[in-house]
Here is the input.
Amino acid sequence: MAHLFNRNVLLGVSGGIAAYKSAELVRQLQELGATVRVIMTRGAQEFITPLTLQALSGNPVHTELLDEQAEMGMGHIELARWADLLLIAPATADLIARLSIGRADDLVSTVALATAAPLMLAPAMNQQMWKDPATTANIDTLSLRGVHIIGPAAGQQACGDVGFGRMEEPSIIAGAAANLFESNHLAGKRVVITAGPTREALDPVRYISNNSSGKMGYALAAAAVDAGAITTLVSGPVDLAPPDRIRFLSVQSAEQMLQHCIELLSECDIFIGCAAVADYRPANVEHQKIKKTENEMTLQLVRNPDIVSAVAANQHRPYTVGFAAETNNVVAYAREKMQRKDLDMMVANDVSNQAIGFNSENNAATVLWHDGEQILELASKASIARQIVHLIAHQTRKND
Here is the structure.
């Protein structure tokens, strides 16, 4: 059955009598697993209150183009990046016309232009308005641009007319939304993903680590599950709940992570090394807490194993994907690293970009493979993860 687990659905509500159905649509989307946020036109607020949809969605409802509470007041951009799907239901004849010519004169139409997410419309209007050549031309224009149209249905309308123009039922709209994401690109594949930092102990209370949040690796695990993969996540210590429907292994050190990864390789088709593994560890770990005695202390460090290289060199070598965090010459350094480590794919991040740091909700990357590359523009880490999984699936199918 199609689902919307780990999906962010931005529901746009425009001003028609069918707006009352948007309350049920929120519930239907949530039952399929989606996180739902709502944006409304001014006309929509005449038919249903923002408070109703806020109570049902569990998230604030947005109605204004410039949001003083949002970062830099650019709420429409934040919402556009957050969304995995922009679903507008009901979509009135007026809104459809404005979307067809690229207008951006309210929050809903502006987000439609600003988002890279798929756009789905559920038209709702009088049957004669639906049949009008202008509406037909506008729908054709949007369809050619890749906009998904669901409905309208036929039946008795609020004005007393009978014909096509009723907004499709919420259960059918929610199901169509879910079907957009039911890819099964990795159906049956066994995927192992590493995530988060490692901690290299100095003594029982101190350690060397880094600022990795684990968000990208966890997003990749969720994306792999959504694509049908049998997924194992090997994670260093982070403040994140493991995604649903995965096998989860918690580790502390690089050596522990390596041990688990090697043990898993006999049943692994794809390995994604997303963890920020510490390059070095203390040569000696004290059994008791190190006492503060001198003004200075010297630590001797030794090199940690390179997990992704060890996986690529293993006799049970899977399709192996690495991550490269660089601050300059990002693509050149990442490609050299991919070739040196004999990897199948490398995901290169420019960590000098403050917008995509360790704890950011967003990311951007360049994905490299032996005879190609693709730039992934700034988007949520969940969106970036799904794009990476799609590329991995495409490349592994070419190699099969």
Q: What stands out?
A: The CA atoms of residues 81 and 379 lie 5 Å apart. The domain at 8-179 is CATH 3.40.50.1950 (Rossmann fold).
